[in-house]
Predict the structure.
Amino acid sequence: MSYEINQKLTKILDQIIERNPGEKEFHQAVHEVLGSLGPVISKHPEYADDAIIERLCEPERQIVFRIPWIDDKGTVQINRGFRVQFNSALGPYKGGLRFHPSVNISIIKFLGFEQIFKNALTEMAIGGGKGGSDFNPRDRSEKEIMRFCQSFMSELYRHIGENTDVPAGDIGVGGREIGYLFGQYKRLTNRYESGVITGKGIPYGGSRSRIEATGYGAVYFLERMLSTKNQSLEQRRAIVSGSGNVAIYTIQKLTALGAKVIACSDSNGYIIDEAGIDLNLVQEIKEKERGRISQYADKKGNSVKYIQNGSIWDIPCEIAMPSATQNELTNKDARTLIKNGLIALGEGANMPCTPKAVELLQEANVLFAPGKAANAGGVATSALEMQQNASRESWTFEETEIRLSKIMHNIHDRCYETAEQYGLPGNYVSGANIAGFLRITDAMRALGII
């Protein structure tokens, strides 16, 4: 895609960069959106009135707090916590919590900004926010993780509520952490407010298919995108980066729809299994043993290659699904994928492709599904969980998955049709940005200057 923007939007971008120094991930996310809005402002200049874009790019509230906790040796540890409540024009703030050493205010703001558009595309009544901590759960004991989560929630609980702000999980925050967080919220408030957090376990208000939703949703979007070119996933050679929830259930759904997934990864390296990834083994290693992906090769033997470090994108494939973290796929990786015959890429993670990589993929006519559209299945199913909590209902897995697939197909069609409407056929990045922008700003304008 082109990142060239008109003079008025350039001025706004410069002001945002100056106002938020050093926040490179946030700058990248804002630049990517503003780079799509030229056709909207040209056709409807009123969308630049009343500082609507500047207000959209400024969080309504930013919360930063200290998290003291005691490790198993009795040593006091200190981490930093964040919650950025970005925009509530469409509903309560909604977005995950990330526990990872890389977490800082720039990453939380970029994720929160992306979340506004992602949530708007679902057409559900949820605003955008994000949070987390620089805490690293890896190699910590169960008791240490529980104590950290309880300390984290001891501050966060003041700022959330089922009609105010509804967190969920993200990297480093799975079902175990959600349970500890919700338990502490319940303890502090003396309320069983199950809609205050999503990604819960089934016994205490969780939604069936929530754990699968982001991966499944990304594949549903990709399938719909391929169908516009009369193509399918059948017999396609695919690679998926990562080996967490998003990657695991992306692999599962790709396989179910006929693709052959031959590689996945973690932060230490990647595996290549030409027979097709054994998902049960990956889940055993990553979910039960909390181990490293290298153990897959140890257990499978010589039929599997393990490459330490390196780039998983060197492997020839037709379908690529980056599902690990931001900016993991570079312009060099994009060139390699294009050379090796890539036909479609779906972003399972948030902003996993660098701007130059996206531009190269689009120039090569690779079907490209941006994360704010393709990975919206997780938050959509979180909103479905909120519906179930509000009505005290529990839907079956099949009921929830049918709703998820319909939502993802609708998101695809909205992005596709919006791109067509603004003279950008096939540009899902612009389609997603413009469709999300219009829905959010229409609500903001209706609510007045607040």
Summary: The radius of gyration is 21 Å. The CA atoms of residues 194 and 205 lie 6 Å apart. The longest helix spans residues 397-421. The chain has a mean pLDDT of 96.
